[in-house]
Amino acid sequence: MIRADEPESSIVIQTGCNVQDNVVIHSLSNSEVKIGKKTSLAHGCIVHGPCEIGENCFVGFGAVVFDCILGEDTVVLHRAVVRGVEVLPHRIVPDGAIVTDQKTASRLEDLTTDVAEFKKSVVRANLELVKGYKDLQLEGEILPLGISEENETKEFQNLENSE
Q: Is 2-111 CATH 2.160.10.10?
């Protein structure tokens, strides 16, 4: 669910993002949610504005980010809560962590190679799914009644003669 229904609220989702099942993105009055390019919002997470998420980020299953800034290439793992802080770029918020003061946010560990690769693979897989869905949509385009790709002219003529 994506809601910017309060006065002077807005939501910007940049290109290449994937928003998975049961994600909630909501912006309070006079605030903005901005989600940077190639960011992945995993199943059931909540992004609540004001909030800015940098490019190439990952917010895990059931995580909550609210009134915060996530620097680019940041990973918030599953069931973590980030509120009222700025997380520097290339950091990782561990599973289940609660980060609500700047001192804790400043001590977060650097993103590891294996987690960075996981994050990239999630974005890549979801972009491939989009391509697959588009291909399926093109394959399933409905042609006018009585027309098939194999024998378009003959079947169309038969349709005309049946009226």
A: yes
